Amino acid sequence: MLRVGIVCYPTYGGSGVVATELGKALAQRGYQVHFITYALPWRLDAFHDNIFFHEVEIPNYPLFEFQLYSLALAGKLVDVARYERLDILHVHYAIPHAVSGYLMQRMLWEHHGIHVPLVTTLHGTDITLVGLEPSFHPVVRFSLEHSDAITAVSSFLAEKTRHQFHIQRPIEVIPNFVDTALFAPRPSAELRQQFAPHGEHILIHVSNFRPVKRSPDTVRILAEVRSAVPAKLILIGDGPERSEVERLARQLGVDEHIRCLGKQLVTPEVLSIADIFLLPSQSESFGLAALEAMSCGVPVVATTAGGIAELVHHGETGFLAEIGDTERMARYCIELLCNPKKLQSFRDRARQRALAYDVNLIVPLYEQLYHRVREQVQVPA
Ligand code: GMT
């Protein structure tokens, strides 16, 4: 079985979740998986056979005003690839991981005559936001041109990459996935009672509260929804806009009706008590959090941003509106909440749609890619 190195951001966020869940699924299939990053990945929460974690330590020196993570990572990758005899390195999020991966390849080849193929998976803002910064753009383009394979989590993101970075090489779309056996509808009247003691409807939002998520819009939607029906809003996650969310809730007089749970493991039990998942993003390449909610039978009200429409079908598994159109998103919520039969059919279809993204259907696409890349790969000139 192959030995796979995985590089990702270990913090609360979709790309790290995908990378970690992929590593866990590969390990279950008998692969030896090595995570290489600066902290234990968020969802690597228990002992897993076949999984190893290598922490990247970043040396400090008074001359370094900024930490040199990309270099420390590249050096660590050389060590892990060489001594753990990696067959493939899979990096998630281009910046700076694809660059460190490229550096590793050059060093390993020139110093040791070893070639480890590099797969880069693009997740979102590495292409749509940060990667477009003039100082990063040429670096991202270069690292993509030198990866042995590139994947993107949606057709939208693949197209954006071709267009913004003039990439001529194939970019394979491998969508995000979910364990539909774990993330399944698990209704609990008791838990629902805790969050909505008077039988209110429940909206939920899970994110890292970065501006790109437009999390404050969920509060505007709640306020609008509450003018028609009683409702509560559960917010999971944390990040720069959390205090703005709380401030806005006070300003709109709905602070008693929101529950900010902070950074918590998102469980199927909590997702299952929600009636609607809100995703009012400015930009969203896929929307993994929405997929996990759908898998628990929760329909999604979101924006048309990025690749969301590839997952959420308007009028079937949820509703989509223009970015910032909180009034329309609230009207869609009210329409569902006031019509239990319609809500139930949206719930059923959301679950059905999620089944197409089951871990057992998507992970084999990565496995096939690894084997293909290893067969086709050419050693560096
Ligand atoms: O691009 C980001 O903001 C980072 C990344 C993360 O780590 O949270 O999120 C992206 O990757 C997820 C997993 O593939 C996708 O589900 C998210 O849609 C995507 N976020 C954005 O495009 C904003």
Write structural notes for this entry.
It is elongated and about 70 Å long. It contains 15 helices and 13 strands. It has a seven-stranded parallel β-sheet, with helices on both faces. It folds into two domains: 3-177 and 359-376, Rossmann fold (3-Layer(aba) Sandwich); 189-355, Rossmann fold (3-Layer(aba) Sandwich), CATH 3.40.50. The protein has 381 residues and is an alpha/beta fold. The model has no long low-confidence stretch (mean pLDDT 96). Ligand GMT binds at residues 9, 13-16, 18, 123-125, 153, 176, 208, 212, 283-288, 306.
- Strand order, main sheet: write it out: 3-2-1-4-5-6-7
CATH superfamily of the largest domain: Glycogen Phosphorylase B
At the first level of CATH, the class of the largest domain is Alpha Beta
Poorly predicted sequence stretches spanning 5 or more consecutive residues:
none
Tell me the strand percentage band.
Answer: 15-25%
* Count of the separate structural domains: 2
Helical proportion? 40-55%
Provide the gyration radius in Å. Answer: 21 Å
Average pLDDT level: 96
SSE succession: EHEEHEHEHHEHEHEHEHEHEHEHEHHH
Q: How far apart are the termini?
A: 28 Å
Task: Give the strand tally.
Answer: 13
CATH architecture label of the largest domain: 3-Layer(aba) Sandwich
Task: Name the bound molecules.
Answer: ligand GMT
Question: What's the total helix number?
Answer: 15
| Overall 3D shape | elongated
The secondary-structure class comes to alpha/beta
Main β-sheet: number of strands, strand sense, barrel status?
7 strands, parallel
